[in-house]
Amino acid sequence: MEPIVHVMSKNGMFLFRFNNGEFGSKWCGIWKGSQKYFDYFAFKIGDEFLSEANFKKFSFYNSQFSTLLFETSKGKVMEEVKCYDDSVLVSVTPSFDSTISCEVGINIRRRDENYEKGKRYNLTEIKNGIKTEFNGKAAYIYFSNGKFEKEEYYGIHSPGVYALKMGLTHYLDKGEVQNKYVPGNFVYEMKANETYDLLFSSKEMDFDSTYKLIKNKIKYAEEYGEIIKSESRKFDVDIIDRGFIMDSIDGIYSYTNFNDKEFYAGFPYFNEFWLRDALIVLPSFLSMGNFSFVRDLLLKIAYKIDDRGLTNTMNGSLYPKDVLGLFLIDLYEYFKYTADASLINLLSDKKESIMKTCSEWMENGFIHDKGNETWMDSINREFSVEIQAIWTRAMYAFYSLFKDQNAKELADTLKKSLNTLFKEDHLMDQKDKDINGANQIFALYFDVVDPDKKEKIIKNIEDNMLSEYGILSVSKNDKTFDFNGYQTGAIWPLLTEMFAAVAFENGKNELGKTLLSILKDNNDNAQCSSRINEIFQPDGSPKGCPSQAWSIGLIPFIAEKYIMGIEPDIPNSEIAIKKRNEIKAKKSLNLGGKKIELEINSNNVKSNYGLLELSDRFILEL
Asked: Which of 181, 378, 441, 464 sees the fewest Cβ atoms within 10 Å?
């Protein structure tokens, strides 16, 4: 199946669009974070609009550059699109002399808004462009040549009807009516092979800045492409396709706002800073060597901790039971990679509050989540297996960070309770509710399952939840399984990634390879170019958010920790490299102020630093 949509993004600025050039959803257009600015742009060459009718080819180079080729009755037209921090540049080059005009639909709104009756804009003509204002927000359009012909038009449209017709999920877009404001047209008389540029921006820009972006667009695109290639070369492992690693790294960058220290859960639907999603993906930034961003993000989140835990989104009001636990796990991972104790010292005055919060959540040896307090927030669950797994690992991390004996005792209690959920060959999804669900993968992923149970649980998941398109959220043989269920049957690539990590960690390389192949061949590019959907139906139909961060964002961390077996312990000036059968890989690391080169060949490891060989691992001493 060819992907039908794509996302271009940089530091929160993003464009969502169909690959044939259409803007057929209320989520299509140009956004900055959760704030929308532009609904669409429509170029007319002579008497013919560039559209689905004359579209020929789409090329997605990466999340910051793409091209579309159209074949009109007079000849070919190339459209290049480049995404910057606060703007999107569209460059149109016809192969023939013609008049070009562009109609732009403006719709300044928040993500949770739809049609607003009587909505009106203030239009101002500025040097080489226009400024439109509404409710304290402004959208800017700058042009390189020609003129702007003012002809204001207010109307309505329903772009989501097209999305539904094309088979894009109805999730969050049911074809609702949207406001439409057209300020006029941008017009220019063009010569053959001349390029016309329009810059769509969320902020005011001076002429020199716009000229620089336009002049250097190809240079900037090539530079970013080289960054992605360079980053992917750090993960030279024989069983992961280089292109898939590049998609993952490009994806991670596209969901990241480095300027504002934020991470978005997905585009276009989840264009907000989701703490849970960020914390699940954050270890990949460690594997990529971006320690400063991890520190900044953890610091930003740390200030949000209170006696209720942490919210799911940065400015949200819901306090799920898993987010604070994931924060503690990531804090420990960051410390192991950097030996930076500054965040630990910062949290010293909150450690008693965190312990108190966790203790208050305890009930008969379990963390008592209730209602919709887990990542499976569409289901009313309590005493959920993944909550116990996350908090068991979190309390062990807390003990390692703060040497708090109470945390160690709490972790031991939670681990013992979690393992009582074991029944024959699986961990029950919830205490006193025997559902054979995929959340038990969390217990394996965070390594809190008793060793004698692991083999049976892994085999159960492989036998009952592994499908051609990934891991089912519930066993196909369970009475609760629902083919159309969002979290009671759908395939979550997140779970497929996590189970791949589990497979490699437990020496099941063939299973791990199968899971990675599913992600690459059956999930990546299914609906959105170089991205993976939020969910898939059991028959492989892509559903949910077309571009979900955690569906592709764990790959670097899995490659480094679970496939190559690399575990830094910089506080103790060493790195462990677990022995891995039939794995060939090379990895460059910058840890402890040193540049380290590793070459892994099955159970042999070579390095530019001395290695101590033990029965199951090598130790590199810094």
From this structure: 378
Per-residue pLDDT tens over the stretch 314-340: 989 999 999 999 999 999 999 999 999
Q: For residues 497, 500, 505 and 511, what is the CA-based torsion angle, rounded to 10 degrees?
A: 180
Separation CA 300–CA 278 (nearest Å)? 12
Residues 592/340, Cβ–Cβ less than 8 Å:
no
Q: Tell me the torsion sign for CA atoms 259, 548, 486, 172.
A: positive
Is 214 a member of any domain? no
Angle between helices 275-287 and 291-302 (to 10 degrees): 150
368 and 461: one domain? yes
**What is the band of 438 on the pLDDT scale with cuts at 50, 70, 90?**
very high
Domain assignment of residue 228, yes or no:
no
| Cα–Cα distance for residue pair 607/597, rounded to 1 Å | 5
Compute the distance between CA of residue 251 and CA of residue 249 in angstroms, rounded to an integer. 5
CB atoms within 10 A of CB 144: 18
Give the CA angle between residues 557, 342, 332 to the nearest 5°: 35
* Calpha distance 520→550 (Å, rounded): 14
Contacts 24+ apart (CB under 8 A), 223-226: 224/62, 224/64, 224/65, 225/61, 225/62, 225/65
Closest CA to 194 of 51, 98, 55: 98
Structural domain including 387 reads 233-563
User: Are 278 and 370 contained in the same domain?
Assistant: yes
Distance of CA 509 to the CA centre of its chain: 26
Q: How many domains does the chain have?
A: 3
Q: Which of 519, 541, 563 is the last residue of a domain?
A: 563
Q: Does residue 108 share a domain with residue 182?
A: yes
Q: pLDDT tens digit string along 485-508?
A: 999 999 999 999 999 999 999 999
User: How is 304-320 classified by DSSP, letter by letter?
Assistant: T-BTTB--SBTT-----
Q: Are 450 and 419 in contact (CB under 8 A)?
A: yes
Q: 591 lies in a domain?
A: yes
CATH number at residue 61: 2.70.98.40
CA atoms of 157 and 149, how far apart (whole Å): 22
CA–CA distance, 475 with 437 (Å, rounded to integer):
6
- On whether residue 538 sits in a domain, the answer given is yes
In the numeric block, the tokens 């819901």 are attached to 318
Q: How far apart are alpha carbons 231 and 248 in whole angstroms?
A: 11
End-to-end CA distance of the chain: give it in Å, rounded.
49
Boundary residue ending a domain (533, 548, 563):
563
**From residue 616, how far is each of 165, 579, 612, 613, 620 by CA, in Å?**
55, 6, 11, 8, 14
